[in-house]
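Protein: Dimethylhistidine N-methyltransferase
Species: Aquimarina amphilecti
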Amino acid sequence: MSSKNLDVLVCAFGKEVHEGLTSFPKYLSSKFFYDELGDKLFQQIMDLPEYYLTNAEYDIFQLHKTDILKSFDADKEGFDLVELGAGDGKKTKVLLRELLKEEHPVTYHPIDISKHAIDGLVENLNQELSKLDVEGQIGEYFEVLDRLKHISDRKKVIMVLGSNIGNLLHPRAIQFLKKLNTVMHSDDLIFMGFDQKKHPQKVLDAYNDKSGVTAAFNKNVLARINKELGGNFDLEAFIHWEVYDPESGTAKSYLVSTKKQTVDIDCLSIQVHFEAWESIHTEISQKYDDDTVKWLAKESGLEISESFTDENKYYKNYVFKK
Ligand code: AVI
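Structure follows.
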């Protein structure tokens, strides 16, 4: 094996692709959907008529902004609003505008792994909400949260929107909440969005849109393997497939091979064999109900103090305290 091959194997992407495609059944992590093209496709998904999640959470912010801010129970000292995975900040701006209107002393700390996203958001906020105190942070959630642990003596509200927690199976969601718990002081809060169980067809449609954007998003992981790991996946020889189990509330995405085929991945020095109709599991998008969220909170040493939903009850934002 050449040293280049070794480098690729030890990089996280190469290592996990190797692991997932040599396992049975095959799997790849949805975190690998996101490169420049993947980010663009996800932006398009959020604008799709079928993808109700974004609008539902936006509506919650519009409908309940005053009560949401009340639930943060910040005193005259104000607070630090930390957002993990801030993206374009569209929903958060509704709260930020309200905070400025009410003259709440607040510092907004958007955190994202993408420098591009943070630079763009900070610039945009400086223009649109020039009075707002913004401290953008680039990095992995927990590394930045560790840094933020001691930013001030003020209360901290940690926000995680977009049902991002839904991409984690319950044990990993608990790990995530527990980790958040460890960086919280006694009166700090978490404000987190959870997509709710609903008519199964509504869920299926959200992850299987007519225009095929979600299919392209799912297949982007194969495109990345081709580009970054020297793969030769034929994207046309795989179909995007979505299933939803209304009992567990788990939506699962797959890529299914439409024929018997062998794919070379040069940088990993492997050949991956697919039987006709063999699948690669690529994503879970968990849907919740109050009991499940209550259970997650309890397992993580947290308690729900309030929750807010949209008119259709598609989505809920919960406030957690220690
Ligand atoms: C980012 N995440 C919460 C999205 C979801 O709903 O699971 C990603 C996504 N996958 C397909 N469509 C959107």
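Remarks: Residues 95 and 101 are 10 Å apart (CA to CA).
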